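[Meeting: bench + compute handoff]

Bench side (C.D.) handed over the final construct sequence. Compute side (W.E.) agreed to return the predicted structure before the next meeting so the bench team could plan truncations. Sequence as handed over:
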Amino acid sequence: MAVTLRRLYGVSRLVLTNTQPWLHTRRVPPAASMVRPYTSGKDSSQPPPDPPMDRMDIVMSMEPAIPIYAPKQNEPFETRRARLLYQSRKRGMLENGLLFSTFADRYLNKLDEQQLKLYDRLINEPSNDWEIYYWVTGAKPTPEEYNNEVMDMLKQHAQNKNMEQRFRQPDLTEQ
């Protein structure tokens, strides 16, 4: 009966609380010996030791590292502007997509080379888009390395003093 329940419910261990197991069963988390850390395919004769279950830092360290952003060298001005327009629209989270796409629509053509480099660095270096969102909206203080004239422009844009409706990204136009 327990084998059937394992197949039906995907339960690795069942605790029977009565003589009728199909009526009174509850799921139990797998034993610590059943949980193995991610291995990179190395062939070893002994399995790796179990991580302590109260150490979340071990589990989190198994995630792949985010690559460090390397700015594009010798990129033509118009190519950089087109790339930043695309990256402003495709942020991965709606809030930043709306903020950055409307900002790019209004200001990207007016930014000079140095301001474009600052904007490029701002939207590509930080690995967490929520952090950028909190800096722009003023929920968290902006780190010194990103506190510049472009960030000030973004903060002003995010305040939306004209009460514009920004519920969709602006249409792309040929220029």
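W.E. noted at the follow-up: Residues 4-8, 11-17 have pLDDT under 50 and may be disordered. C.D. will use this when planning the next construct.
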